[in-house]
Amino acid sequence: MMKPSYFKLILLATLFILLTGEGKARFHSSPLEAKGPKMANVLTIDNNGGEACLAPGETVKVELKITGGTGYDWHVEGLDETHLKFIGKKTRAVSPGNIAGGPVLGIWSFKAAAPGDTLLKMLYYRIWEGSKHPAGRFEVKLHITSR
Question: What's the pTM?
């Protein structure tokens, strides 16, 4: 049977892991952790600020929620086309019944072109307000390496 002090210690450690996100699954925090063929293929807001690996020729999709009917949208900023090519964007309704002005999921597709590191950066803003003060940011460092 555990003593109360051990129970408190385990409870505190569990809370720390949950609150800091240390227990979350993630893509590679460094290129050295990229063991084997485990590569990124879909990035979401959970990957914001992280890193991911791709091989030249592979595609990666970025899936981000958009509040429909507000004018806000995600915009790709400063794409390094030497390493990453934009393929296209699609949207899909998130709520059942395809409610007009309801939330949608934006899906951007990119293809890794040449080996190297690049930053995929997207900003969430209304086009008529400009990107100076975005309502959201999404950034992922991509490592494009041969397997």
Answer: 0.71
